Amino acid sequence: MAEHFNVQSSSDKHYKTSPNKRTSDHLAKLAEPKKNITALEEAASKKGVKPSAMKYRATKRILSLSKPKRVTVKKIDQNPIDPLTQSITSVSPSALMYKPTKRILELAQPK
């Protein structure tokens, strides 16, 4: 496939493929699959867990963060429509009750 390019360079001969030519050493090394990391994982598992890590006690903050959020019933009843399925043209109730300031009314006037 590299033969079809019209690029001329000194290193071009290494990348052309043909049945009679061998690939370069560098290209052959790049083509080898990566070695498994299982040997490293096994070495890490043999070390085990440090004794200081076994003595760790979670702080109040960590424990509070580990608990799921509480959703109040009031919040659920307030917005029963899912925002993803809600119509684009619908207006929120709070936007309908908005009272503009004098400055907003002034800016809204045509020049």
Give the helices and strands, then pairings.
Layout: H1 12-15, H2 25-31, H3 38-47, H4 51-54, H5 60-66, H6 73-78, H7 93-96, H8 102-108
Structural class: mainly alpha
Number of helices, counting only DSSP H or I runs of 4 residues or more: 8
Total number of beta strands: 0
**CA radius of gyration:** 34 Å
Residues in helices, as a percent range? 40-55%
Keywords: Repeat
In a nutshell, what does this entry contain?
Helices cover about 45% and strands about 0% of the residues.
Can you describe this structure?
Keywords: Repeat. Residues 1-29 are annotated as: Disordered. Residues 1-10 have a biased composition (Polar residues). There is one protein chain. The protein has 111 residues and is mainly alpha-helical. The chain has a domain at 8-43. Helix content is 44%, strand content 0%. The chain contains 8 helices and no strands. The chain is flat and about 80 Å long. The protein starts with 11 loop residues before the first helix and ends with a helix.
Essential attributes:
111 residues, mainly alpha, 8 helices, 44% helix, flat, disordered N terminus, THEG, SPMAP2-like, repeat
